[in-house]
Amino acid sequence: MTPQKPRVAILKTGSTYPAIEEQFGDFDQWFLRGLSPGLDVTVFNTVAGELPDNPDDWDGVVVTGSPAMVSNREAWSERAAQWLIRVVEKEIPLLGVCYGHQLLAHALGGEVGYHPQGRESGTRNVELLASAKDDLLFGNMPNTFSAQLTHMQSVLSLPPGAVLLGRNEFEPHQAFRVGKCAWGVQFHPEFSSTVMRAYLGVQTPDLEREGFDPSAMIDSVTDAPEASGLLERFSTLVKENHAG
What we know:
Layout: E1 7-12, H1 18-24, H2 27-34, E2 40-45, E3 60-63, H3 75-89, E4 94-97, H4 99-107, E5 111-114, E6 120-128, E7 144-151, E8 153-157, E9 163-167, E10 175-178, E11 182-185, H5 193-209, H6 214-219, H7 225-243
Parallel strand pairs: 1-2, 1-3, 3-4, 4-11
Antiparallel strand pairs: 5-8, 6-7, 6-9, 9-10, 10-11
Helix pairs in contact: 3-4
């Protein structure tokens, strides 16, 4: 009898820009490419009201980014936040990315809102803190690594009891952990450098209005293998946890 693959739920909290989706697919497909094929993954359209029933049915949970804003507290988002509380309580491995990172923080009592300095977009460095050395997900990563970023809202204050793992000069809360195995990351491990350049291309009019140099930002995009590898490391953690 073939052993059952670990079951992972992806909570899809929105879609990318239409022009980018047409060329590269949508958020869930990027995560599927980065996660291990040794997982049994189901995608839930959270914006349409889809949520898994019992968290105990799942070996891992991933929450995607979104064009929505956590601070708007839309009904679908608040329902998802309540479900994430249960996931954390059950100690099921959880990875929230960008919107998912902010939603996890909000669900557990942190503060989310617009970053006082505006937008962060492009390839940026993330610095890990000493607290990441023994972390199950970040423990083997270099102290500083490149990552793809695009966000206007941030975790302004972490939830009670959260452990800060990573930051940079712009964003003080790039990565955190709550409990044993629930992580939030502001950066995008699912983005390729090609997708990052496409984002900056679509954002060019807004970037120019905000005083950025989009051409220079596009030129400075690089691959971010350590950040991308986070999805494979999360997959390994889920599989190890499932195996007991």
